Amino acid sequence: MDGVHINRAEMHDAIDLSLWAGEMMFGSGAEIDKVQRAITSLLDSFHCETISILVAHNALMVTITRQGLTLTKVRTIAGHGVDFKKVTEIYALAKEVQRDGFDPERIRASLKRIAEDGPLYCSTFSGLAVSIACGAFVVIFGGGPREFLATALAAYLGVMVRFRLSRLRYNVMLVFGISSFISSLAAIIFSPMVHKPDLVLAASVLYLIPGVPLIDSIEELIRGYVTVGLTRGVMGMLMVVFLAFGMLLALSLKEMI
Fold first, then answer.
1. Of the candidates 23, 58, 48, which has an alpha carbon nearest to the alpha carbon of residue 38?
2. Cβ atoms within 10 A of the Cβ of 75, count?
3. Phi and psi for 54 in degrees, rounded to 5?
4. Phi, psi dihedrals of residue 172, rounded to the nearest 5°
5. Residue 187 in contact with residue 151, Cβ under 8 Å?
6. pLDDT tens track, the chain, 257 positions
7. What is d(CA 147, CA 227) in angstroms, rounded to the nearest whole number?
């Protein structure tokens, strides 16, 4: 009985760590295939006889069998975002564990460090980079120096609002709508100072295009993960709808003024 108890305790530990890793990866924008490979790599080093993984949009379930004992656990995926730094580090950790062997304390310490690490760049630097990118787009579309400056400033204001609301854990749809409204309103305010205000308005919200969810959705549909693919696609389209709603609200305000 003691041996069975020890085996179950080890299995609980292994499955909890693998679920934690998978939840962080999927919540950071990783594709299902990459999540499954990372979990499998972690549990392979635990010498499981069978490993079954089910990924849904808001939950992750893993079943393992070892020495005749079977254990199933489910972990909720609380939120979704984009953090490829986390995805890369966890995937690299899983490959290291597969090569070096299963060490629960080392894995737990590594996952804790990854979870507590902040973004690779500070919000100010990221905001500046995004605003310059949006300004570059307006130049590609045919704008000049004035359009570049107006677009970059409008995008920067919206990006910083987005970062702030995201840190406060606002609903992602509200974050998209409010950020779009701020950038669009700023673009409208700057419109008398530019030659092509429509280009400034369009380019100032390009940072809100949900590229990762939409691309992941197509990839997962192609690979046969229909449920998750459709869910991610719908979420991406809802983000676009709220982006458009924010722009519409700003334009309506312009008409009222």
1. 23
2. 17
3. -125, 120
4. -60, -35
5. yes
6. 344 444 778 888 999 999 999 999 999 989 899 999 999 999 988 888 899 999 888 899 999 998 888 899 999 988 788 888 999 999 999 999 988 888 889 999 999 999 988 777 888 999 999 999 999 999 999 999 999 999 999 999 999 999 999 888 888 999 999 999 999 999 999 999 999 999 999 999 999 999 888 999 999 999 888 989 999 999 999 999 999 999 999 999 877 75
7. 42
